Amino acid sequence: MDLLTAIRQPVTAELEQYKTLFDEALKHSDDYLGMALSFLKQRRGKMMRPLLVLLVAKECGEVNMAAYRSAVTLEVLHTASLVHDDVVDESDERRGQGSVNAVYGNKMAVLLGDYLLSTAMQQSAMTGNLHCVDVVARLGATLSEGEIAQLANIRQQIYNEQAYYEVIRCKTAVLFACCGEMAAVAMQADAAFVEKARTFGENVGMCFQIRDDLFDYYDDKQIGKPTGNDMREGKLTLPALYALTHSDNQEMHRLAELVKTGEATANDIQRLIEMVKQSGGIEYAQKVMEQYAAKAEQCLDAFQNPAVKEGLRQYLMYVIGRKA
Amino acid sequence: MDLLTAIRQPVTAELEQYKTLFDEALKHSDDYLGMALSFLKQRRGKMMRPLLVLLVAKECGEVNMAAYRSAVTLEVLHTASLVHDDVVDESDERRGQGSVNAVYGNKMAVLLGDYLLSTAMQQSAMTGNLHCVDVVARLGATLSEGEIAQLANIRQQIYNEQAYYEVIRCKTAVLFACCGEMAAVAMQADAAFVEKARTFGENVGMCFQIRDDLFDYYDDKQIGKPTGNDMREGKLTLPALYALTHSDNQEMHRLAELVKTGEATANDIQRLIEMVKQSGGIEYAQKVMEQYAAKAEQCLDAFQNPAVKEGLRQYLMYVIGRKA
To answer: Is residue B222 predicted with pLDDT exceeding 80?
Structure first.
């Protein structure tokens, strides 16, 4: 049994129920919109976020409809933000499939993302819980704040580790945090547990993004994106930030400036990646990720259901060790 | 006293309170995002939608915080959709100011629109009323459905008046309908009044869009957009649809096809506009608009407050007679 199957074990039936509700939420009678939504449904992905919602909810008892709606809400919101991110990043591919902007054009991608954002909000209202609505609305704002901060950072010449953490918290970790929080709120857990569930999610999310950024330093066909993709978009992530702030190698700084200004060639990027690797940037990012993982693991003390607890521990292991 | 001032008369103090809340909702400590939001706040516009919310709310008694939040919600949502529409339509101008995409680029415009959508949702949650949240979430979905349908219609060669009404209902009238509905719901009015307030708004909204589409046939510097702008975007509106379905003039049909395929020159568009005018398309659209106005006026029977009732009647007159 592979790791993902093991993680899903405690909520196998619940995942099926979730899938039905998700597919219903993305159904539409209009030909053109319906076609675009079906296109999105084809790339179901690994369902990491709904899985987290369902595992946390299961800890609190039999998964209720508000928790299912929370899982759908967050996955639809995530999908919306991916659709718009691909427009912003001018990406042609997503999970081995064409991006919406590549297949349907930028205009449709903007409108489809808007439709999905509103669908997420409708689903959150269906929880019947204003606290859940508020969590999602704040999350939506935070996700765009994160992307806007990243856009602004690209223009700046300063290399700032703190700004990096702030960006990945906003653009990735907060979504995982909300998976934990909404699940607990939907199940009417007490405030202390809500906080633990949120903190677990947030730290898992930090690991998830650092791991994602590490992929950018390795050539691997399993991962959808090619090496150096972030740098091509003008983004310097944790390994490079570490290397740049711990070395005054003039060539490395010059290459980093070219990345920032969008003038770096493929060779420049390859050279910078090698230099970052030689400076210990990879090991540093790994270490930081493990620190976040340790913080996440501490939160598991608040969980009682042995199957759920083990599922979440494996979930964390999967996130920090994943190959794609 | 001009007409707009007269319309605002019954809710002068309430509009000031609304402006304070709106400006607070669009404040942000982040430099870049804060700057873009300030840019948007400069173009306050005529506040047609908040004005409608406040007038309807005032009918029900002293305007409460839920109604103020509804007004902010709907204006922020409207602003979000304008920002994204300008990306989709590749517009450089909006209310005599540069569009967000023209000034900050497409990427920022997409992200800023997302931020605004989420802000609208947060404001709706602040009404403390799940019904209000649901109205807004459905509205958000409908607005994007309308834009998507319009995008799909542009590709089609059929000239269909019903499809036109459906598009303008989704992209414009439903927003006005929700102004009436949310105001009444926020003030805890009974279901019959909610329905009247919604129907008034919907019919006003139909008038608003038909009037807007009529502008496209006249050269007037007061109006932000140049003559023939809709046709340049491949859109055929009510006057042209009437002319095309009531004439088999081969030249007119050939020109309309060029508009649809985006191949029409400035001269083609000028020629088509003239032919539509000669075919009585303008008078027909005027007549249809007046029918919607009559439906709106009927709804005013449900209003008791004389100042509010007169304000709403003038509001309607303003919408059908406005020059910009």
So the answer is: no
Predicted confidence at residue A236, as pLDDT, reads: 92
Closest residue on chain B to A127 (Cα): B130
Contact at 8 Å (CB) between A237 and A216?
A: yes
Q: Which residues on chain B place their C-beta less than 8 Å from a C-beta of chain A?
A: 28, 30-33, 81, 84, 87-88, 106-108, 110-115, 117-119, 121-122, 124-125, 128, 130, 133-134, 136-141, 143-145, 147-149, 151-152
State the residue for tokens 């609208």. Answer: B120
Tell me which residue range forms the domain holding A171.
10-211+305-321
Q: Tokens for A287?
A: 């270490």
For residue A251, being part of any structural domain is answered with no
Q: Looking at the domain assignment, is residue A53 inside a domain?
A: yes
Judge: B115–A144 Cβ closer than 8 Å, yes or no. yes
pLDDT at A220: 63
In a domain, A204, yes or no: yes
* Rounded Cα gap, residues A225 and A95, in angstroms: 9
Lowest mean pLDDT among A147-151, B12-16, B118-122, B283-287: A147-151
The minimal CB distance from A148 to the residues B33, B117, B147 is found for B33
**Which residues of chain B make contact with A32, given a CB cutoff of 8 A?**
148-149, 151-152
A204 vs B187: CA distance, rounded Å: 43
CATH of the domain at B92: 1.10.600.10
Contact across the interface for A108 and B144, Cβ inside 8 Å = no
Query: Smallest CA–CA separation between A35 and chain B, in Å?
Result: 12
* Region A11-37 average pLDDT: 95
The ipTM value here is 0.87
Q: Say if residues B154 and B95 touch (Cβ distance below 8 Å).
A: no
Residue range A120-127: mean pLDDT, rounded:
96
pLDDT in tens, A228-260: 888 998 889 999 999 999 999 999 999 999 998
The total number of structural domains that make up chain B: 1
Q: List, for residues B18-63, the tens digit of each pLDDT value.
A: 999 999 999 998 889 999 999 999 888 899 999 999 999 999 999 9
Q: Is residue A174 situated within a structural domain?
A: yes
Q: State whether the Cα torsion A280-A286-A292-A295 is positive or negative.
A: negative
Helices vs. strands in chain A: H and E counts, helices first? 17, 2
Angle (CA) B4 B8 B11, round 5°? 175
* pLDDT of res. A128: 94
CB contacts, 8 Å: A145 with chain B = 28, 30, 33, 115
Q: Say how far apart CA B162 and CA B205 lie, in whole Å.
A: 16
Q: Kindly report the number of other CB atoms within 10 A of residue A22's CB atom.
A: 21
Helix, strand, coil percentages for chain B (3-state, nearest 5): 75, 0, 20
